[in-house]
Amino acid sequence: MMGNDFLSQEELDALLGQVEALTDIEKDMIGEVGNIILGAGATALSNILGRKVDISTPEVEVMTLKELRSEIKGEKVCVTIHFEGAVEGLNALVLEKMLAAEIADIMMGGIGNIESDELDDFKLSAVGEAMNQMMGSAATSLSDMIKKSVNITPPTTEIMDFDKDSVKFPPVGNEDEKVAKATFTMTIEGLKSARFFMAMPISFVKKLYDMIFGSVTSEPKQETKQTVSSVNSGAYVPPSPRKEEKQPVAARPVQFEDFGKTAGESDKPQILDERLQLLFDIPLNVTVELGRTKLSLKEVMELGVGSLIELDKLTGEPVDIYVNNKLIARGEVVVIDENFGVRITEIISPRERLHGLR
Fold first, then answer.
1. Conformation bin of residue 50: beta by default, left when phi > 0, alpha when psi is -120 to 50
2. Cα–Cα distances in Å, from 267 out to 135, 255, 273, 282?
3. Comparing C-alpha atoms, which of 157, 149, 129 is closest to residue 45?
4. Using one digit for the tens of pLDDT, what is the confidence trace for 242-277?
5. Is residue 250 part of a domain?
6. Residue 158: inside a domain, yes or no?
7. In whole angstroms, what is the distance from residue 96 CA to residue 68 CA?
8. Statement: the pTM of the whole predicted model exceeds 0.85
């Protein structure tokens, strides 16, 4: 602005760009905060899957939403998460289909070593619940960090084909709005590492930065030689941490571990219960088997209307009850109005049922 009182168009564009962009310090903040809150999310996901889960410190880029869409190829699993409370904003979590399919397979009793990345409604529901638990723990960790309430709404999980021009990416903003893309690497025990990313509006990031560091940087600075030297050199001086009041410590009698149990023995049932509770709404096929027999191909070809097939069970013997082709109980056939039914007379033990459903 040398010689006149007006800004040139180039200067206006530069100022507007600074408003939308992130500083290096804010990018570093995303990395550190993402590392902390998704560390809590990784712990939650680890409990759900029963395997160790590691999530790396993110790589942060700033780009327009249009640029972000253009660099994504093929089908991806998109999880839309809305943060509410002290920090609000719509975030989009984008996973590779294979990673989502592996998570779903483990949650549904498999081992994760799958050959196909196909996802049906049941598997997508399982992935959505896993992400809900993971990001819910991340939101709780963020609440603890900023000392204010932060919650998430139940996420929306869907498959999007980014090769199609008609794809409607989760509305984190208009096409020209800049977003922060934080790319993480997730490693699930026994599986290959996979990358995923979260897209966040710039306003969400700046609000988060102000919530964490705003009140700290507003405190009077201590005039020390080290501070003066740093200011004179133009280097960034990180804000001094606030002194927190010491909370009284509650004393309680020490409780020693029962060394008669095998390590982890008492924890497994609780972990399994938590994992099963996530799947309680998934429908299962129940089949009642009257009996079985074996026929030769010749005998099968000779079957016709009126043919009799003798089964291997005697009259009055209990019939077998299967869930997803796994035996869980036995019972007797009854008639309810005009329909057949089964009265359960024997239940397979919970341990045997759990093994059968794996």
1. left
2. 23, 16, 10, 25
3. 129
4. 444 445 544 555 454 454 444 444 555 555 455 556
5. no
6. yes
7. 15
8. no
